[in-house]
Amino acid sequence: MSSQDKKKQPANPSALNVRKGVDGGHDGLPGHSTGSGGDNGDGPRRRLLSAREYIDGVLSGDRVLLARAITLIESNASAHQEVAQEVLTALLPRRCESIRVGITGVPGAGKSTFIEALGKGLTSRGHQVAVTAVDPSSSLTGGSILGDKTRMEKLAADPNAFIRPSPTGGTLGGVARKTRETIMLFEAAGFDVILVETVGVGQSEIQVRSMVDFFLLVLLAGAGDELQGIKKGVVEIADAILVNKADGKGLAAARSARSEFERVLHYLRPATEGWVTGAFNCSSATGEGVMEMWAVVEKFAELTRGSGVHDRRRSTQEQAWVRALVREGLEDLFQSHPGVSEQMAILEQQVARGELPATSAARKLLDMFRNG
Ligand SMILES: Nc1nc2c(ncn2[C@@H]2O[C@H](COP(=O)(O)OP(=O)(O)OP(=O)(O)O)[C@@H](O)[C@H]2O)c(=O)[nH]1
Ligand SMILES: [Mg+2]
């Protein structure tokens, strides 16, 4: 099926509200009900649909069923996981061609405002835009990304856009798995632009980098030193730096910050082979420069698709993901092994007291695990 075939109108535009993740506590937009009333697709009391119903629903662009399918893959219950894997297996070959863009930056940089302005621009050009987030803090705090601080009311009401808050619950690895699988559902539902927001602190941007094609770092002028608490490592994985709020009194500062970043980038190795990472300005508030930033993303997509870098990156990402899942699975098995968990604390103490070399301790634990 071509991506054109898959550009469909939503079957149920009333289902476009932002929905909460399966564990709750992350309710999305203010004024958008995520309560249990109505056919909102996420109520815990709802009957589990058959895999076929999810598959057909997602493929037909039904937003309620898409939301329910995401809730299904977000569930940690093993019965749900089984159906979820069946749904994903059937949908994998049915995905449309998409551009996946990760967007990071310090809180308040204007990521959500940018996504709203960009998303509206893209839907008016006929794109189907899906937005989600990776916010590991949401498990603990209820989250802020795409939460109550969001600036995406207009995009949320757009029939050609779909916004899904960060999955909640579990480790960063768990949140990332759910987001990756959500992206697959988006693509099977015909969304050709996928935007993934993340906070500019910690490990979450590394995770997002590993699931997107293009990684955008949104920064501000004059917010302290030029890297603004963003680790240099994050600049190194970016495909572009966008200095936002280039408007009103901030215009001159934003322009000079852009040149400053351009100079910094000159000394770094680009994140993507064959691409020159640049610094740009925009005002997400006025919209100026927003679609120009998108033109850069499109140029990137064209270049990397032509050179094979795009395909190589996507397959490397998939392989790395399999390995990460296996590592996590092994770690879980190891930790839950009764003998191992008992001995672990004892051996670690012996190591800490200097009575046992770390290598011997690890070897003992692994032997115990191997011998059942
Ligand atoms: N002047 C101006 N203000 C902006 C612009 N973009 C965003 N803002 C304002 O900056 C504040 C933060 O914007 P958000 O879009 O919520 O920032 P964010 O990066 O998503 O923040 P978090 O989700 O908390 O990490 C809001 O008050 C916006 O109205 C801009 O281009 N110009
Ligand atoms: Mg935000």
Could you characterize what this model shows?
The protein folds into 2 domains: 213 residues, 3-Layer(aba) Sandwich (Rossmann fold), CATH 3.40.50.300; 58 residues, Helix Hairpins (Orthogonal Bundle), CATH 1.10.287. Helix content is 47%, strand content 9%. It has 14 helices and 7 strands. It has a 7-stranded parallel β-sheet with strand order 3-2-4-1-5-6-7, with helices on both faces. Strand 6, helix 10 and strand 7 form a beta-alpha-beta unit. Bound molecules: guanosine-5'-triphosphate and magnesium ion.
Walk me through the topology.
Blueprint: H1 51-59, H2 63-74, H3 78-91, E1 99-104, H4 111-124, E2 129-134, H5 138-141, H6 153-156, E3 161-163, H7 172-188, E4 193-198, H8 204-209, E5 214-219, H9 232-236, E6 240-243, H10 251-266, E7 278-281, H11 290-307, H12 309-336, H13 338-352, H14 358-370
Parallel strand pairs: 1-4, 1-5, 2-3, 2-4, 5-6, 6-7
The structure holds guanosine-5'-triphosphate (GTP) and magnesium ion (MG).
Magnesium ion is lined by residues 111-112, 145, 149.
